[in-house]
Amino acid sequence: MRLFNFSGVRENELTAIAPVRLIRDRATWLIYLQLGVFATYLYGLSAALPLLRLDQGVSQAVAGLHGTAMAVGGIITGLALPWLTGRIGRRAVSWTGMAGMSVGVLMVAAAPTMLPITLLGYGVASGMSSITLYSGMAALDDRHGPAGPAAISEANAVCVTVGIGVPFVVSAAAQSALGWRAALLVTPVLAVLLALTMGRVRIPEPGDGAAGAATGGETRFGWRFYLASAVLFCCVAMEFCFNLWAAKLFSDQTGLPAAVAATAVAAFTAGMATGRLTGAWLALRVPPTALFLGALLVAAAGWAIFWLSTNPVFSYAGLAVSGLGVALHFPMALSRVLAASGGRRDRASAMASIFAGLAVGIGPFLLGALADGFGTQQAFLMVPVLIGLAVGGLLLTASGRSRAGVAEPA
């Protein structure tokens, strides 16, 4: 049997596999920092949504349309990403996304009482930030080859670590004379500062190095790619179900008021930050399928603790454990989508953006609809269903690779 790594480089079966190393060059650090700015948008607009709803005087259902706008924005730009990358290159795409993300955030900050403007702002910020996110993930995978999953995990660790502090900034601004809108200005200010300091750094383009050489002439993806994308869908839907509905179940189960229960999301986010920081280290040492399966099982264990608990301490613990497992789901699922793309990473990233956008739009909405009919606790059974589907898809793609005589990269 012959071995293949992610970049398609063939190794002799008797050749020892060298330890995988992650080398962080200036391009890598730029993408990490862009993800940090991305976090200020994502967690800032999420934390601001309840305050925005109060300013607009709309129902929760109407306020929820902002999440739908985010999903639609991501899908639209996902469709355009391959064309944009081919026309202007990844470097220009990444900075175009940063500029558009800033414009979207400024629209929300400037017109918080005008529902059409804020819906458009959420959609623009989400869509434009998505092209920065997914082009950056493709560039990391190209640049680092077998260490790509570790780089993607580390980039997402930076994102979620920054994200932990953003809601506190929004809260502090809301209680000050400045108002919560001032906190949103952090995103465009940081984007400008990053452009001024690292705007000339070159980001790897499609076709750079061995990783980009396997573009091929094939125009259609195979079944393994779409199955890997379905796993990504399950993972993103699961993460957003926790993000948007965990506080409600926490309140229902423990009897604590909604204002206190909102802190439950912080436990989940802290678990994600820890998981992504350690996950980058583990991704260099543990086979990808084993690591991914382990992360899914950890999330299932955390969900069980949280779902069964009526004690706040155990509920917090369950959410933290869930976050620890969920932390690796998106990086590992995205890495598998890119690995199944046959070297067409930008097209694969665009498809990943579309699947993720659909997951954001469908997952939490479906859980909410189930909660209306059966209660939040019963609706949260959707989480282990998503975990089971992800495990099944993962095992099918792994067995498919084995039958094809292709070993996983170390």
CATH superfamily membership of the largest domain, which one? MFS general substrate transporter like domains
CATH class of the largest domain: Mainly Alpha
Helix content: over 70%
- How many H/I helices? 16
The residue-averaged pLDDT reads 82
Largest sheet, strands/sense/barrel = 2 strands, antiparallel
Strand order of the largest sheet: 1-2
Secondary structure class reads: mainly alpha
- Residue fraction in strands: under 5%
Oligomer: single chain
CATH architecture field of the largest domain = Up-down Bundle
Name the poorly predicted regions: 1-18, 209-217, 402-410
Q: Based on CA inertia axes, which overall geometry fits?
A: globular
CATH topology of the largest domain: Growth Hormone, Chain: A
Which keywords apply here?
410 residues; MFS_dom; Growth Hormone, Chain: A; transmembrane helix; disordered N terminus; globular; disordered C terminus; mainly alpha
Question: What this model shows, in words?
Answer:
- Keywords: Membrane, Transmembrane, Transmembrane helix, Transport.
- This is MFS transporter.
- With 410 residues, the protein is mainly α.
- It folds into two domains: 22-206, MFS general substrate transporter like domains (Growth Hormone, Chain: A, Up-down Bundle), CATH 1.20.1250.20; 218-410, MFS general substrate transporter like domains (Growth Hormone, Chain: A), CATH 1.20.1250.
- The protein has 16 helices and two strands.
- It has helices at residues 26-56, 60-63, 65-110, 115-144, 148-174, 180-184, 186-198, 223-254, 258-261, 264-283, 288-308, 312-326, 329-339, 345-374, 376-379, 382-403; strands at residues 3-4, 10-11.
- Strands 1-2 form a two-stranded antiparallel sheet.
- Helix 8 packs antiparallel against helix 12.
- The protein is globular.
